[in-house]
Amino acid sequence: MHGQAHSGEGEQRSVAPLVELRGLRKRYGRGNQGVEALSGLDLTVPAGSLYGLLGPNGAGKTTALRILCTLLAPDAGAVQVAGIDALQEPRAVRRLLGYVAQEVAIDKILTGRELLELQGDLYHLDRGDRQGRIGELVDLLGMAPWIDRRCGGYSGGMRRRLDLACGLLHRPRLLVLDEPTVGLDIESRTAIWGVLRQLCAEGTTVLLSSHYLEEVDALADHLAILEAGRVIAEGSPAALKGALGGDRVTLRVREFSTPEEAGRVQRLLEGCPGVRQVVVNQAQGYSLNLVVEHEGVVEQLRRQLADAELPVFALAQSRPSLDDVYLQATGRTLMDAELAVAGSRDPKAERKQSMR
Ligand code: ATP
Fold it and tell me: Which of 7, 29, 110, 348 is 20 to 30 A from 237 (CA-CA)?
C-alpha cells in the first residue's frame, strides 16, 4: 500500500509508508466498566511526512501511539514500522523510533545535560558521539542558556524541549510525539513547531497527536481525524479542505438560537438549491455551518429565510478551513467534542481543559 505525499507545489507523488497500523483494537478494563479505546484503527504514515493525528480527548490517540511505540500491546491488529512487525520484533522497532510522551517525570536533581548523558548511555551511544550529539541538540532546541541548570527549576517549555532532545538522541527515523505543545506558551510552541519542521525537512518522519486544530493545520502535510478509536477522515489538509468544495458560510438568525430554532433553519436551508452540508454548531450559540456552491446562493437563502420570518442576523463567508473539515467529518466542532468529554468527567480531559 502506498500513501500520498504532497510537494510544496501541491502535486502528488507516491511514497512508501513508514508506519502501517491495521485493525488495531484495545479495550481497558472488563465488562460494563470497560472502555473501548481503539475499535479497528487503520493508519498509514508515508515516509518523510509530518503527520498529524487529530482528535478530542479520549479519542484514542495516546493508546494508538503507545501501541506503535511497543509500550502497550493491542488486543488485535497489526503494527509495522519500515516493514518490521512491531509485535514480533519490538526491540528492532524501538531502535527506529523516538517517543516523546505526553507527560514525562523528569529528574529534578540532575541538570538537563546530565540527563541527556544518562539517556545517551541507555541508547549505548559511544562517549565521543554522545557529546557531539548532545551539542547538536542543545543548539537545535535553543537549550544552551539553561541546559547546565538543574531540571527542577525548568519551565514547561524547557522540559518539553528536553523531552524532545531525549527522543532525538539516537537519530530516529521516526519521531512520535504525544501532544507536544499542550499547555505551552506561544513562544515555546512556535519554537517546537520550527524544530519539527526542520527535522522533517532533513528526512525524519514525524507523527504527532494533537487536539489543537491550528497546530495540525500549521504543521502537518498529512492528517487523520480520530474519533471513538477509529480514523474517520484522512489526507493532506489541502485535499481535505478542497474536497469540501465551495465557500463555507456561518449564519445565525439571532445571537443565540435555541436548538429547536436552529433545527428549523437547518431544515429550511437543506431545501435551498446550491446549499450543502448544513450542520448546527452548538458551541457557537446554535449557529449554522453550511457550504454554498456559488456566490448567488447566499442572496437566495437570505430571501428564503426572510420569507420564513427568520431573517439573517449575521453571516460570515470564508474558504474552507480545517475546522470545517473536522465539522464535516464528525458532525460537530472539535470544541463540542471536547466539551462532551469534559461533561463525562474524564479526569484526564478535565485536567487538559484547565490547561488551555
Ligand atoms: P487524551 O488527549 O486525553 O490523551 P487520547 O485521544 O490520547 O486522549 P487515550 O488516552 O488513548 O485518548 O484514551 C482513550 C480512552 O481510553 C479514553 O476513554 C480513556 O479514558 C481510556 N483510557 C486510556 N488509558 C486508560 C487506562 N490506563 N485505563 C482505563 N482507561 C483508559
Answer: 348
